[in-house]
């Protein structure tokens, strides 16, 4: 039996639904028979004044017992603007969070951080004092832009990677980028994230359609943050090329800074009647949308190995996604879905039309997707078993 401290700044709480995979990963790890976990979720320091950034964080308790274990919420100053001060923010994180851990948490056998920066960087001093291994995760391509930078942030990140006993890469693509960046092969471990195949599963589409009052025969679904790099403006352009499809509704689930811009673009293109912005959806409401959808679309310009694709495949959706980063490792072109070039609305429209015109192909690809999830063991139980092997390799 050994004790692990799990650390992640991007962790869902009562005010923010971000990065649900963090909690799911920790919950899976906590169920390992030989592991005891305690969780640290650093939160920005703020005051309960309405117009201050992060003011809602003041209402989050210092700690609470959750299904995955005891969760601590230490505070640290999060400086803005982020572009200028993110390096210093990591130093403040390290000082404040480590000080909290020293005073409230007993020594562990290992520290696992779900992000290299600021999480693993902030835990360097703690791991040195405890003399325990540090494990850090890399989740996306953009990490390597910062890693290579001749900046204070870049130097901090490189120092952290050097200090980690193991680096967990969620895709083969990220592992290859790490090797090209000069990271020691022996330090790298490929561990894909997982999915709850009980929660995300095929259901009776017609029954859900009646329950939700959906009239359209086909639903094309996007789930994720509303960010420019997610390629959503490309998606709207593609939809504008499919205006003759009155039996199809395009549903966008998520929130983010581009929401109003996307709504304006939809109106300008004359497709506001075909596009439905659903906002943030979680739990059973989200699972139902996946089960209702015929096609899941992800037009991102860059990704890691997105969990939304696992969710869609487990739910029996055919997938149309861009051929970037770790996505081709998930979506087998022509078998579980179709791959398209990023920033190519015409090709995206063509591939969507191809599936929408062939109900048999759409259904078959959806079935193949769930089959592949199970065959590859892309489940949270599979993730936990692989992480357990990473832990034992450094202890």
From TrEMBL:
Boundaries of every Glycosyl transferase family domain copy: 204-372
GO molecular function terms noted in the UniProt entry: glycosyltransferase activity
Ranges annotated as spanning the membrane: none
InterPro entries the UniProt entry points to: Glyco_trans_1 (IPR001296), Glyco_trans_4-like_N (IPR028098), Glycosyltransferase_grp1 (IPR050194)
Domain of life: Archaea
Glycosyltransferase subfamily 4-like N-terminal domain location: 71-199
Record-given protein name: Glycosyltransferase
Species of provenance: Methanocella paludicola (strain DSM 17711 / JCM 13418 / NBRC 101707 / SANAE)
Source species taxonomy: Archaea, Methanobacteriati, Methanobacteriota, Stenosarchaea group, Methanomicrobia
